[in-house]
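Support request from a user on the community tier.

User writes: "When I paste my structure tokens into the form, the page sometimes reloads and wipes my input. The last time it worked, I copied everything first. Here is what I submitted, just in case something in the input itself triggers the reload:"
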């Protein structure tokens, strides 16, 4: 008897766990000749160059949560800004004589491999015919994949859709790569949310769409256009409303699909690698976690008292561009407790706050915190609940007699933050995060615990959304860390079940899904930084 989709997801999740005795199955060494090109492009398409801006709206990061009285108008220039600030290049790095050279983007990516691709679906705007466009981040340009004969949507908003190329991550990480592709989707969604907030635009994840319909809209099923190239799989579709004070009437999937069906398609996807290996476990979990069309989600969110203020005076765009993953951190530097409480507060799913306004689901992730150096908090293990019964759930699931649950004396009342073990947690954090020093030497590190069984009861396709929510949390941590004068790093490499053993978690009710660390990053002086689009002659 063949496995059900949910059984396939459980099986994948188990086999893709790293364990102290063995890592999840991966390639035997890296085949550098087949390293995938991180830039997809479609040959034979009409290109629409986007302006590379040197100046951006002067919005403070601390002000992003407040409504913007003068949102940027919807036009090609501002759509370019949105993409530039979210998925565009943020810098080039070079090493030594300059032969070693790689680009970084505003969105982070596991191994800097960037499996996420983005598409713009737009009505006719000045200098931009209605259609479906692929965003080519290297050239910062739009590539017209499908020209619509007539606009299927009002000229008051646009959609952005994301897709993934699993091979880009599987080349390096093998079976676990499916997880990393999903995390990257979450980070990309977060990056788009922050960029939209800079422009004063509202962004909403429309999770009613079936994956097959997103694929048809983006032309991902057009075998002839990918004849010699690695395929993309559909992820999600977002609506962007540049006038949040006015309702935006969203066209139906049928209207958009009909426009794409009747539209004029062009373009041939470039090949990314000389050879591609198939990872059967990824093919299976991908097939099992495909999403059907579903009704809109309705849930009553928790109400949280007013958000703790962010003391940063930095411009949001400066933080977006300077965001970097630290590779090493300074163990002498501690984070003040007020800055720590603010970071925790920004992780609470307030519907009015960036990026949570874009996320349509009730929160399923809570935080296990390894506190190392927060001035005003005892080092040890802490937990942050992200809904009203999150802490209770952790208390009943963690089976460890040493744990005593106590709210720190100085903790703001509304913050569901509890300490349950006092002591130096740095060795444990390092060990659990695949022996990485960055998990031990910073101010704090995080294990994200997800309500696994409960989510999968809703369907196997919910699996991917758990990683997306984790990626969103990661994006908040990255930018909030920068705002606090620190840096962050996403940690996809961790020993899943060792974390569960520490906590006394038996079964799959709660599972560790992503790690993260925040600290004062050490600058690698051997590297040089170059501007992101110096290679373009415009
Ligand atoms: C899902 C995910 C997992 C990651 N895992 C690790 C990790 O285990 N160790 C590490 O040093 N960096 C990790 N990173 C950081 C990436 O290597 C980094 O984002 C990438 O090199 C691009 O650099 P940037 O973030 O400075 O733009 C991870 C990033 C993401 C998004």
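"...and here is what came back when it finally went through:"
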């Amino acid at each position: 008897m063949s496995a059900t989709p949910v059984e396939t997801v459980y099986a994948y999740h188990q086999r893709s766990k790293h364990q102290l005795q063995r890592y999840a199955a991966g390639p035997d060494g890296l085949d550098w000749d087949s390293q995938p090109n991180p830039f997809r492009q479609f040959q034979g398409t009409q290109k629409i160059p986007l302006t590379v801006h040197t100046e951006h709206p002067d919005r403070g990061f601390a002000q992003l949560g407040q409504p913007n009285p003068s949102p940027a108008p919807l036009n090609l220039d501002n759509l370019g800004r949105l993409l530039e600030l979210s998925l565009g290049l943020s810098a080039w790095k070079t090493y030594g004589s300059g032969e070693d050279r790689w680009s970084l983007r505003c969105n982070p990516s596991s191994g800097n491999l960037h499996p996420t691709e983005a598409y713009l679906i737009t009505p006719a705007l000045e200098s931009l015919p209605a259609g479906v466009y692929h965003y080519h981040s290297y050239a910062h340009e739009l590539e017209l994949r499908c020209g619509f004969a007539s606009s299927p949507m009002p000229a008051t908003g646009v959609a952005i859709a994301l897709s993934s190329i699993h091979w880009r991550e599987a080349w390096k990480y093998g079976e676990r790569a499916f997880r990393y592709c999903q995390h990257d989707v979450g980070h990309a969604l977060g990056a788009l949310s922050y960029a939209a907030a800079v422009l004063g635009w509202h962004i909403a994840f429309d999770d009613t769409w079936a994956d097959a319909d997103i694929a048809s809209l983006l032309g991902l099923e057009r075998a002839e256009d990918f004849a010699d190239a690695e395929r993309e799989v559909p992820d999600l579709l977002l609506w962007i409303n540049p006038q949040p004070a006015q309702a935006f009437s969203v066209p139906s999937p049928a209207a958009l699909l009909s426009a794409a069906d009747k539209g004029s398609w062009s373009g041939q996807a470039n090949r990314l690698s000389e050879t591609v290996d198939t990872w059967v476990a990824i093919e299976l979990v991908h097939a099992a976690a495909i999403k059907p069309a579903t009704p809109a989600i309705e849930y009553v969110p928790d109400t949280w008292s007013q958000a703790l203020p962010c003391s940063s005076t930095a411009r949001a765009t400066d933080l977006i561009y300077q965001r970097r993953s630290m590779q090493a951190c300074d163990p002498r530097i501690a984070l003040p407790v007020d800055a720590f409480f603010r970071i925790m507060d920004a992780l609470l799913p307030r519907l009015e706050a960036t990026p949570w306004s874009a996320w349509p689901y009730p929160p399923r992730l809570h935080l296990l915190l390894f506190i190392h150096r927060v001035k005003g908090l005892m080092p040890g293990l802490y937990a942050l609940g992200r809904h009203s019964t999150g802490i209770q759930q952790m208390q009943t699931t963690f089976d460890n007699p040493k744990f005593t649950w106590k709210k720190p004396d100085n903790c703001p009342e509304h913050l569901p933050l509890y300490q349950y073990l006092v002591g130096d947690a740095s060795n444990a954090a390092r060990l659990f995060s695949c022996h990485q020093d960055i998990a031990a030497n910073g101010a704090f590190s995080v294990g994200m615990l997800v309500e696994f069984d409960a989510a999968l009861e809703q369907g196997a396709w919910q699996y991917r959304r758990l990683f997306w929510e984790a990626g969103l949390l990661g994006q908040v941590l990255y930018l909030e860390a920068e705002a606090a004068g620190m840096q962050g790093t996403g940690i996809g490499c961790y020993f899943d079940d060792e974390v569960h053993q520490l906590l006394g978690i038996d079964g799959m009710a709660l599972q560790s899904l992503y790690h993260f660390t925040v600290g004062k990053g050490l600058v690698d002086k051997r590297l040089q930084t170059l501007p992101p689009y110096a290679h373009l002659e415009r």
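Agent notes: The reload is a front-end session timeout and is unrelated to the input. The longest helix spans residues 177-199. The pocket of flavin mononucleotide is lined by residues 104, 108-112, 180, 183-184, 187, 324-325, 436, 489-493 (CB under 6 Å). Escalated to web team.
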